[in-house]
Amino acid sequence: MAALLRSMFMKNRSLWQPSFCAVRAMSTSGGPTPPFSTLSVSHPASAVTHVELHRPEKRNAMNRAFWSEMVDCFSQIALDSECRVVVVSGAGKIFTAGIDLMDMAGDVLQPQGDDVARMSWNMRRVIAKYQETFSVIEKCPKPVVVAVHGACVGGGVDLITACDIRLCTQDAWFQVKEVDIGLAADVGTLQRLPKVIGSRSLVNELALTARKMYSDEAKSCGLVSRVFSDKEAMMAGALELAGEIAARSPVAVQGTKINLLYSRDHSVPEALDYMATWNMSMLQTQDVVKSAQAAMEKKSPKEVPFSKL
Ligand SMILES: CC/C=C\C=C\CC(=O)SCCNC(=O)CCNC(=O)[C@H](O)C(C)(C)COP(=O)(O)OP(=O)(O)OC[C@H]1O[C@@H](n2cnc3c(N)ncnc32)[C@H](O)[C@@H]1OP(=O)(O)O
């Protein structure tokens, strides 16, 4: 049966290959990468995909196109066997100014429907759609490194808390801005930030007052793992880190991301059980033999040719 499915899959690959190609052929030129209008996607190194928020003149504010383009982009990346790790950053002066306040009126402030029930039903669907924009980052099996410079406001915090590794520049600041615009943050910050930062009290303070948190505090509370002097140094650091991840077995790396996220949301016994089930097949990969042999021979994982995943 498995062989039959595999041969059907191979026959029909061309049917869905175009979506792969859309990512693989993306340019590295100055502007957004078609078909996207808010994202620039490039491949700065082997197995590394760089997704840049690209509306610099509007401080990368998240307009309607952005909310759906992120879903398309990360859905393609998740299936792209050439990609082993993703770096996300922002073009221009800052990382992002959060939701596009001019665009927000259309979707969020004018719910469609003939009565309260129908308007509420539609509003729920809109919020769930917006949530998916960042949940796709978490669902993507490839690790996502985010590099923040300057401001990271509102939706920006929702975005970065869905990423696996956060870096920033010395001039970076973070703001859970939602209460200032009259809403409870609803696309991930209130759910993920408490799992990222150890102190519940600090999360509550940030979310209830919308005060800015600067890079030093972001580092000391664990929101980011490294602070760089400027954007150039940070991007070099992000690419170096991505290169380290990309050099390792994709079976090991993706299994690690998936199990870390599982253990975040489950008890230790449940997560150990999930892990055992995961590795009962994944330990049978040729990558274990190749990696163990390389370790015995004192070779770096970078010298091991792993198959695509
Ligand atoms: C279902 C709901 C889902 C998600 C909800 C998310 C909630 C949030 O994201 S709340 C956060 C909303 N964002 C803000 O309140 C930030 C507003 N912007 C600023 O405070 C500042 O722009 C800045 C980020 C501090 C940057 O300042 P500066 O570098 O001085 O740039 P500006 O001159 O202010 O702006 C340049 C240009 O960009 C436009 N712009 C900036 N932010 C936004 C935005 N959030 N929405 C739309 N447009 C924005 C600004 O209007 C300027 O445009 P011009 O055409 O040049 O005038």
Characterize the structure shown.
This protein has about 300 residues and is of the alpha/beta class. The protein has twelve helices and nine strands. It has helices at about 1-25, 65-80, 105-110, 115-140, 155-160, 190-195, 200-210, 215-220, 230-245, 250-265, 270-280, 285-295; strands at about 40-45, 50-55, 85-90, 145-150, 150-155, 165-170, 175, 215, 225-230. The strands form two sheets. The protein has a six-stranded mixed β-sheet with strand order 1-2-3-4-6-9, sandwiched between helices. Ligand LTDHYY67 binds near residues 93, 151, 155, 178 and 187. It is found in: Peroxisome. Belongs to the enoyl-CoA hydratase/isomerase family. It catalyses: (3E,5Z)-octadienoyl-CoA = (2E,4E)-octadienoyl-CoA; (3E,5Z,8Z,11Z,14Z)-eicosapentaenoyl-CoA = (2E,4E,8Z,11Z,14Z)-eicosapentaenoyl-CoA.
CATH fold label of the largest domain:
2-enoyl-CoA Hydratase, Chain A, domain 1
SSE string: HEEHEHHEEHEEHHEHEHHHH
Number of domains: 2
Secondary structure tally: strands: 9
Keywords: Acetylation, Fatty acid metabolism, Isomerase, Lipid metabolism, Peroxisome
Family: Belongs to the enoyl-CoA hydratase/isomerase family.
InterPro entries: ClpP/crotonase-like_dom_sf, Ech1-like, Enoyl-CoA_hydra/iso, Enoyl-CoA_hydra_C
Pfam families: ECH_1
Secondary-structure blueprint:
Layout: H1 2-24, E1 39-45, E2 48-53, H2 64-79, E3 85-90, H3 104-109, H4 116-139, E4 144-148, E5 151-153, H5 155-161, E6 165-169, E7 173-175, H6 189-196, H7 200-209, E8 213-214, H8 215-221, E9 226-228, H9 231-246, H10 250-264, H11 268-282, H12 286-296
Parallel strand pairs: 2-3, 3-4, 4-6, 5-7, 6-9
Antiparallel strand pairs: 1-2, 7-8
Helix pairs in contact: 1-2, 2-4, 5-6, 10-11
This protein binds ligand LTDHYY67.
Residues 58-59, 61, 93-94, 97-102, 108, 127, 130, 151, 153-155, 177-178, 181, 186-187 line the site of ligand LTDHYY67.
